[in-house]
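Can anyone check this?
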Amino acid sequence: MAKMMVTDRDGHLHEVEGREGLKLMETLREFDYGVTAICGGLCSCATCHIFIEPEWMSRLPTPQSDEKELLVELQHYDAARSRLSCQVEFTDALDGLPLQIAPDE
């Protein structure tokens, strides 16, 4: 099965099985890494903010306007790496995806 390499807020690296067809958020909120996803994936709270390495961004769908609007308001927003995990579906093409849970806002 395809994997994600998740760095939690304490800097610890975890190898996590990705589940094809599910949003990254759905997998990440099951672990105690800091993704709370309060809105349940409706793209309205940004509590699933993650950083993805720039070289992987081209493999992801382009962020829609509602995601962009939330991201730019965040204190830890990084234009090159920020995404909301509720807006990114995991596929086998993302095997090995390195991501980091963003600091709490």
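Reply from J.R.: I decoded it. The radius of gyration is 12 Å.
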